[in-house]
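Holo model, nicotinamide-adenine-dinucleotide. Inputs:
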Amino acid sequence: MIIKVDIKERSYDVVTSRGLLEKIGELANLQRKVLIVTDSGVPQEYARTVASSCKEAFTLTIPQGEKSKNFENYKLLLETMLKKEFTRTDAVVAVGGGVVGDLSGFAAATYMRGVDFYNVPTTVLSQVDSSVGGKTAIDFGSYKNTVGAFYQPKKVIVDLDTLKTLPQRHFSNGLAESVKMAMTFDEELFELIEKGDVRENIEKIITRSIELKKDVVEKDEKEAGLRKVLNFGHTLGHAIESCFENGEIYHGECVAVGMYALCEGEVRQRLARVLNKLSLPLTVPFDKERALENAFHDKKFDGAVITVIRVDKIGSYVIEKHTKEDIADMIDSL
Ligand SMILES: NC(=O)c1ccc[n+]([C@@H]2O[C@H](COP(=O)([O-])OP(=O)(O)OC[C@H]3O[C@@H](n4cnc5c(N)ncnc54)[C@H](O)[C@@H]3O)[C@@H](O)[C@H]2O)c1
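Output:
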C-alpha cells in the first residue's frame, strides 16, 4: 500500500507491505553514496540487504537504546559522511526503530544543510509513529529530543516482515501509539484492536495508524495546533518516563498509563481492557513528586498551566489547560 503524505514540495510516500527490504533498490535512489545507520539490536541482515542494493554503502551500527540518541553519535554520523566525502547529492538510510530514525534523520537534515533521507522503520512504534511526520532529534542536556529539526524523509519503507524478529514487549510498546490514535481519532480502529486478533490484523492496524498520523501532519506539519492531539497520554507519560533514567519502563508503557489517567467511566473501562489485552500497564510504580516536577519542566509548559488532551468519547478529544494542582490529582489517582 502507498500512503502519500501531502505537504507541498516536501511530500513523500509511505510504502507498506511485506518483503520490501529486498526491493528497496526499486523504491529508493540508492545509486550513490549511502550512509546506512542501524543499531546493535536490529538483526544485521536488514542493513546488509539494504547495503546490497546501494552503489556505495557505508554502514554504521550504534549501540541499541535511547542513550545512543546523543550528540556523540550525531557527530559520528557527520564525521563519517565528511570522511567518506559525501556531497549534497548522497543519502542517509535509517534501518531500525525510532532511536536510529530520529538520530539519522537529524544528521541528514543538517549535513550540508540537508541530504536525502530514507527511513526504514523496523519497530511497531517507528512504523506507526516516529517515521511519519519529519520530527528528527537527539537528546541533550538530560532532556529528550531537545535538539532537532523538522525534516521530511524522501520516502518511508515499512516492511512488515521486519516485525517477525521484534520482541513482544516492543511490539506492545508501539501499539500504545496506535491505541492513542484510535482513542483520539478513530473508533473503528479502536474496535479492530479491541475485538480482533492483533497479530492477524497487524497490517491493517499499522496502515490505518499511519493514515491517521498522515492526516494530522498534513494539517499541521510543525505542531502549531492539531498535532498536539498526538500528545494524548504523553504529557503524563513523558513525566513518568523521565523518572526511569535507564529506560526500565518503555515509552509506550508510560503513554498507556498517561492515557488511562485521562479518561473516565466507560471509556476508561474499554481502554483498560485493550491495554490488558496488549500487556500494557494501567499504572507503574513511580516517584510521583518527581513526575510532577518533570511534567512542568516539559516543553508544553505554558505559564502556570499545561495543555493536556482528554478523551470523553472514543474517537474524539478535548483540549484542556491544567494547573499543577490538577496534574498532581491526576498523578495521585494512579
Ligand atoms: N520522531 C517522532 O515523531 C517520534 C515519535 C515517537 C517516538 N520517537 C522516538 O522514538 C524512540 C523510540 O523508538 P522505538 O520504540 O522504536 O525504540 P528503539 O529504536 O530503541 O527500538 C527498540 C529496540 O528494538 C530493537 N529493534 C528494532 N527493530 C527490531 C527488529 N525488527 N527486530 C528485533 N529488534 C529490533 C532495537 O535494537 C532496540 O533495542 C524514542 O527515542 C522516541 O523519542 C520519535
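The domain at 168-332 is CATH 1.20.1090.10 (Dehydroquinate synthase-like, alpha domain). The chain has a mean pLDDT of 94.
Archived with the compound record.
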